[in-house]
Amino acid sequence: AALGEGEDILDLAFSPDSRRLYVAMAGAGLHVLDSDPASPGFGQELPPPTDLFASSPASLATDPLGRFLLVGGSPAGTMVTFLTPQGGFVDTVRTPSAPTSLAVTGDGRYLVAGMNGQAQVIDLSLGSVVATTPSHPVAGSLLSVAVVGDGTRAAGLFPNSTLAVWNLDPLAGPVGAELYFGNPFPPGTVSQLVPAPDGDGLLAGCT
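The chain above was modelled as a monomer; its predicted structure follows.
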């Protein structure tokens, strides 16, 4: 499906059942595609889930429990907006700067929102911030955040391949505590983080 001529795709997120693909586009708003291979409309654009984001949402994530579609950025910039999967408004959580990347733990407990120089950990059931990671403003905005499969740690990738790792396990220490900050990769070679299938690590997208 053609979603916007010449517009950049900022983020993608599948619904928990993989039947819908949500797409955030620069200057073209929030779109949804039919990603169910058994559907006669497979690959076609569906009616927009909401008209709240006529401009440019910056980041997307879906709740594994099917409760929320989570949108970072637009319309006011510095917030995460909670929507129902059908696009109905639920709530917002204010953030210090525009969220550039979102990731949710597999049990649906925490949302990690990456932004300029830091991340915030949001309890999805409470709809409130429970931790803010140490700030590294000189590192720039987080390009990507990801949560390991067992949900105990999150990681964020800054420009120049700087990596931060944070604790998400309350039994291991304070949630949001920084476990690592450094440059394990050559500068500028990594652009994306995703969970590894082993449940304990991450995969890095390299250029």
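Residues 84 and 98 are 21 Å apart (CA to CA).
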